[in-house]
TrEMBL record:
Listed name of the protein: Homoserine O-succinyltransferase
Domain AB hydrolase-1 residue range list: 41-350
Residues reported to bind substrate: 217, 347
Organism field: Sulfuriferula nivalis
Taxonomic lineage: Bacteria, Pseudomonadati, Pseudomonadota, Betaproteobacteria, Nitrosomonadales
Residues annotated as the enzyme's active site: 147, 313, 346
Pfam families: Abhydrolase_1
Transferase in keyword set: yes
Record EC number: 2.3.1.46
Amino acid sequence: MVVAAQTAHFDTPLTLKSGAVLDSYDLVYETYGTLNADASNAILVCHALSGNHHVAGVYEASDKKPGWWDNMVGAGKPIDTDRFFVIGLNNLGGCHGSTGPKSINPATGHAYGAAFPLVTVEDWVASQARLADKLGIRQFAAIMGGSLGGMQVLHWSIAYPERVRHCLVIASAPKLTAQNIAFNDVARQAILTDPDFHGGDYYQHDTYPRRGLRLARMLGHITYLSDDVMGSKFGRILRQGGFNYGYDVDFEIESYLRYQGDKFADSFDANTYLLMTKALDYFDPTHTAPEAGLSAALAPAQAAFLVISFTTDWRFAPERSREIVKALLDNGQQVSYAEIVSKHGHDAFLMPDAHYHALVRAYMERVSG
């Protein structure tokens, strides 16, 4: 499937949860499949921390690298583009074409940098709803996402309950634990304390906080994998067959993490990483009424839910998904739940697991029916 990115421009100001206002902004997105006559077959895919609009397919003039969820979305795949019209977008604050810190601030003629406001899950969902309006979609057949994407799905269900019929919340949580917030803060500190960061305005200094972003990604990547995967793939294998008695790479796992850090630093923006992790930290549907609990927060939802977790995901553990399920059941809302046996940790939601994919495919039969 050959695809192309598109850009939607918005001139209507968007007031963010922080109180800041974006007078205008762009959202980059891709679509797959065909929107039917009554616009009732649309699926929105919400991306996670390092995701973007390129969900599936390949670009015509490129290295043919497929989208990040290409095993899930496409003709004949669990999210079948022969039946559904699928939308992927790069959220506000992103670094793949949508307006974000490295975009030009029309007020100054320079990159926004540190002047770009913090954005939240609530802000993303508001901008996604505007994109749906522009595309003529009043109600989604389904909205789906993994991890941070799943949090966006949850907010859709309570902010625009009449605009979504089904919600697929995968490897996610209703809010971060203190441990997860701690991981995010350590990652941010790696970036913020990099001498090349310049308070977020490194674009104007012709520098880049590569070391900080590299370390942040290495830390994050450790939390996305399970101990089983790291053990079976790397164990204590030495790269050169013996110890170097120094601080360079000795073990294969060290080499792998440095490679992942370097690759990420080459393709992502440090300011965007800061924004995305803070959005993760802030999301909490119970924030305004914690005493009422999650059931009360999810009470406005009208959609049917599919909630999926993975056994070895310790970053977004299955018990966090079960919190969502319990809250929905407490309200008498319609929810299906599956806990998939997987060795891949948090990254399992991106993997082509046969059982997982069969489950999503079966649920999508219900969506289309």
